[in-house]
Amino acid sequence: MSKDKKRADLDEKFQQLRSMTNSTSANKASILVKASNHIRKLKDKIEKLNQELGSTSTYPNTENEHQQDSFPKVNVETLENMFTVNVESEQNCPGLLLTIIQVFEELGLDVLNAEAACNDGFELAAQGVWNEGAESLDAEIVKQVVIEAIRKWMSGTASP
Q1: Strand 73-79's sheet: what is its strand order?
Q2: Where are the domains of the chain?
Q3: For the segment 14-46, what is each residue's pLDDT rounded down to a tens digit?
């Protein structure tokens, strides 16, 4: 790899860091400091969410196979400031949509488009962006929080 190519790649990486941290500085040291602080804040947020969840597990604790089969499937994808959340269940889930929307609000997510079906089961496909000023989270963290909300909803402890 040529020296110019390496420099261009490095400059591109700094530009990505700069945009991810909303840095206005052109100084590489300042960009690195801001990125480091951003990473620390995200780690703190992850730790706090894990403490609130009481577990770092991303899968529901189930006591039997039937219960495991009936637990809704959750898939979360993020790309920069956008997110997509899909939840599917073969069973009807009255009240689950409201529970999940409340989770979105708590995480600072603005839903731009959502499709839900509750006829023969439950399906939710939601797309949106992070609220202005809210820090974006890793897809796995969002998934954990949604799964924990579903657990609470299933046990009847979710707040309507």
Answers
A1: 73-79, 82-89, 122-130, 109-117
A2: 3-53, 65-155
A3: 787 788 777 787 787 777 777 777 777 777 777
